[in-house]
Specification:
It contains 16 helices and no strands. The radius of gyration is 21 Å and the shape is globular. The protein has a domain of 114 residues: Serine Threonine Protein Phosphatase 5, Tetratricopeptide repeat, CATH 1.25.40.10. 78% of the residues lie in helices and 0% in strands.
């Protein structure tokens, strides 16, 4: 649900012994924590260690540091594998999948989601099946396959009652709304997003609420309901700031800038886009920075500020990968 930026996760050499990689990642954790917990040989302690690694992974994921997030999810996978904790293994593959998907590596993300789905099917666990089908739908959406996405979401819905997880149901509703938005079925999209928002508001899931408001802003902007769109984007920014979601903050500011430009509020648009660029640069979201710079070039040209347009174009050119013949 988070609006991530495209990054490249460093792929590990398959010939490198897994133990070496794990030891290095563990050393990184120990060097960054003054009181890292000891790992005992008991099942409970190993499971707790896996959960702690997963928590670190989630923290880096929210910050947009997908390489480090993947490292910690790999550690969590190793711990869960030590005790054959299949539900934990399944959840960790989902976490790895969402990390690769956020970084733009859809192929690796699909591999992880499909592995998770096979495990969930074998276990017959409705909650895991709901989560896995939802993630597979998100991957299909990323590939532009809205029909395939809606098929996966329909499969996920069949497990919703038995899973009895309002939080996961809200994620699913949001994704269904997103799929309908892609098909320009705005009434259906708004319906599902409002359902998701109602659940997230009751549970006080602020990152999810931010995503709901962001998507509503997109829908309203496409319908030229610009005042409504600005209100929704501003609410998304408010919630993302409360949880310090840097990736979301950059996306919200960019949305506010683009919508302001569409509403011919040019001064506001410039300020929002510059703020978005500053956040994206601080996080290291190169792909997002490129998109924001393109918007700034377009905006500057529209308002006749050719000097700024040239400066932004130079920054954009510097970020573009060199072409190879």
């Amino acid at each position: 649900m988070i609006r991530p930026g495209k990054q490249t996760i460093t792929r590990r050499d398959p010939g490198t012994p897994r133990g070496i990689m794990l030891a290095c990642a563990a050393a990184l954790l120990l060097s960054s924590c003054s009181s890292a917990p000891d790992v005992s040989d008991t099942v409970t302690d190993i499971r707790d260690q896996a959960a702690e690694y997963a928590d670190y992974g989630n923290r880096y994921y929210v910050r947009g540091n997908y390489d480090r997030a993947a490292e910690f999810f790999e550690l969590a996978l190793h711990e869960n594998t030590l005790i054959d904790n299949e539900p934990g293994i399944c959840q960790t593959y989902n976490s790895l999948g969402k990390t690769y998907l956020a970084a733009g590596d859809t192929t690796t993300a699909l591999d992880s989601f499909e592995t998770a789905y096979r495990i969930a099917t074998r276990l017959g666990n409705d909650l895991l099946l709901l989560q896995c089908a939802t993630h597979l739908g998100e991957a299909a959406l990323r590939q532009g396959d809205t029909e395939g996405a809606l098929d996966q979401f329909a499969r996920a819905l069949t497990h919703a009652d038995a899973a009895d997880s309002p939080r996961d149901l809200a994620v699913l509703y949001h994704d269904i709304g997103t799929a309908h938005s892609r098909r320009e079925e705005y009434e259906e999209a708004e319906h599902y997003l409002l359902l998701a928002m109602e659940i997230n508001d009751e549970l006080r899931k602020l990152p999810e609420l931010a995503s709901n408001h962001y998507m509503l802003a997109s829908i309203y902007s496409r319908q030229d309901r610009l005042d409504d769109a600005l209100e929704q984007a501003d609410l998304a920014l408010t919630y993302d700031k409360q949880v310090e979601n840097s990736v979301g903050i950059a996306a919200d500011l960019r949305a506010l800038g683009v919508i302001s430009q569409k509403a011919e509020r040019y001064d506001d648009a410039v300020v929002y886009l510059r703020r978005a660029l500053r956040v994206a640069a601080a996080v290291g979201l190169v792909h997002d920075a490129q998109i924001i710079l393109e918007a700034l070039v377009d905006l500057s040209n529209e308002i006749g500020d050719t000097s700024s347009a040239s400066a932004y174009q130079e920054q954009l050119d510097a970020l573009m990968p060199e072409s190879t013949e």
